[in-house]
Amino acid sequence: MRSLFCLSLFFCAAVVLQMAVFPALLPTLLRPDVGILFGIAVLAYAQRDFALACVFILGLQADLFGSERFGLLTLSYLLAAGAILWLAWRELTRGDLLAAWIGGIAGTALAHLFYVLIGKISGHDILWGQAAATWFSLVLSACVWGLPCAWLCGQFAYRTGMMDLAVHERWASEARLSASRRGKLVRG
Q1: Which residue has the higher pLDDT, 85 or 1?
Q2: Which of 62-66, 87-91, 155-159 has the lowest mean pLDDT?
Q3: What CATH number did the domain enclosing 50 receive?
Q4: CB burial string 6-36: b at 16+ within 10 A, e below
Q5: Total number of domains in the chain
Q6: How does DSSP classify residue 123?
Q7: Which domain holds residue 139?
Q8: Please, which residues have CB within 8 angstroms of residue 41's CB and are 6 or more apart in sequence?
Q9: CA atoms in the 13 A half-sphere facing the CB of 116
Q10: How far apart (Å, rounded) are the C-alpha atoms in residues 146 and 162?
Q11: Model's pTM, two decimal places?
């Protein structure tokens, strides 16, 4: 039940950010693909089955609310997540914020590269110049917004108990160490 609740929250947050908040506040060049950023961050922090379900749900969200070719973004998200897990499984799944951020940037780049390539192979009319400009702006915005998205997803996974056990223990020990340092500074 907790998994379904968390998946629905990720879905709703991605829809609201992608459809309402970012278009109203940001120029086109800095509007990220929130779905893949959330998906890769969840992949870095959460249990594997939940994370892959989250990547799938967020891909469906992107297809429903932002794609002209239904199913292609979902497939691209899953292929990008699989490629990242295959290439950098150990680095990504340690729960580091930096690895989740770089994974989000790489996931954005790969997912939208797969989107263009598969779209071209399947016969969709995709203009290379427009696709390259869109790809560049998405990667640039992932560089800007990937770190806050990774941090928010990590905090959410930690507080809801959806975090992988090893990553949760690491975060808990870092929190205890940080609290003890603050306590020593306050007392001293």
Answers
A1: 85
A2: 87-91
A3: 1.10.1760
A4: bbeebbebbbebbeeebeeeeeeeebbbbbb
A5: 1
A6: T
A7: 2-187
A8: 100, 103, 104, 149, 150, 152, 153, 154
A9: 16
A10: 20
A11: 0.87
